[in-house]
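Task: sequence in, structure out. Protein: HTH cro/C1-type domain-containing protein.
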Amino acid sequence: MVIDIRTRRAGKERDPAIPDGPDPLLRTVYGEILRDERLDQDRTLDDVARAVGMSKQYLSEVERGRKEPSSEMLHSVCDALGLPIEHLLTRAVRRITASRRIATRGSAGTPRVQLLAA
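Result:
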């Protein structure tokens, strides 16, 4: 719930930090994790795509969650990043679990309330 203290009324404004609707697609979560890992290593799309043997356009689509890579392709990208596949899976579970918690409760386990001030 959002309470706007300027008008003292509850509203239904959406907080962009809280997911709206169903859980994110698994391909979206995988893509975010792969992109984060690549950027943490200061590597380019081109560098990783060449190491895997795919186009950088395809890798970009995977990172943005627009393409659903095969398990073999995920394994190849993970290998190129030095990221064990089980770490990708574990991190995906953590992100989905965290997004569910945030969507239903605040960090202290209480209903989430946001105050807006002028």
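Helices lie at 26-40, 45-52, 56-63, 71-81, 85-104.
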